[in-house]
Design a protein that fits this description.
single chain, 223 residues, mainly alpha, Arc Repressor Mutant, subunit A, Four Helix Bundle (Hemerythrin (Met), subunit A), three-stranded antiparallel β-sheet, 10 helices, elongated
Length: 223
């Protein structure tokens, strides 16, 4: 397990955020055992805020709390993957279709720039750098579309689904062919949004998610 850096302001919320970020950024791998004493020493705090962080992260599904033995980073089952993608496939295509009515020219230009950036990343050679940059660009691409729908309640539900380490792991499993397919679909989404065609947008977004699900499940079965 990597040793984290001491926190500049080691309060309970800071410890919680640091551990959560470490999981989200895959510094702590699925199944990794986290120990209170190790993290308390590394962060420069007592065990109490670490224990509280474990409790909160366990309730949110990031950790499995082990009584008297610390915590373990949650491992994702095939059924977890299926459920999350099923839920996304219900919500995200609808939001994308609604966004077709509302996105302004500036947002459409940003989406095109993000798609072009991901295409350039896929042509580069550093897998780790590609994964990190791709994750950030893809997140922003989908956020622009989902936020553009103007439905706060559905957006909140979707964000709750997506704020899990599984999303980061998804991108780590993508190969160049997966990313190339995703790039094509991103460009088609921009084209459909520019055409103000909600049916087209919805169909492409659903295809985009289902293709990602198939790829992730294939990789999960190989683990």
């Amino acid at each position: 397990m990597p040793t984290p850096n001491p926190l500049p302001t080691p309060g309970a919320d800071d410890v919680y955020s640091a551990i959560k970020q470490g999981i989200a950024q895959a510094h702590y791998a699925p199944g990794a055992h986290l120990r209170e004493a190790h993290l308390a020493e590394a962060y420069g705090v007592s065990r109490t805020p670490v224990r509280e962080a474990f409790r909160r992260l366990g309730a949110e599904g990031w950790l499995e709390v082990l009584p008297h033995r610390g915590a373990r980073v949650k491992q994702w089952s095939v059924r977890d993957i299926e459920e999350i993608f099923e839920a996304r496939a219900l919500i995200e295509p609808y939001l994308a279709a609604q966004a077709a009515h509302h996105l302004g020219q500036g947002q459409l230009d940003e989406l095109l720039a993000l798609a072009e950036h991901m295409a350039a990343l896929n042509a580069s050679g550093d897998p780790q750098a590609v994964t990190e940059a791709w994750f950030a660009a893809n997140k922003r691409f989908h956020d622009v579309i989902n936020e553009g729908a103007g439905n706060r309640r559905l957006l909140a539900s979707l964000q709750a689904l997506k704020e899990v380490p599984l999303i980061k792991w998804t991108f780590a499993t993508f190969g160049q062919a997966d990313r190339a397919r995703s790039v094509r679909q991103h460009f088609e989404l921009v084209q459909a949004l520019r055409a103000r065609n909600p049916q087209w947008v919805e169909a492409v977004m659903r295809s985009h998610l289902l293709a990602a699900q198939a790829s992730v499940l294939e990789n999960a079965h190989r683990r």
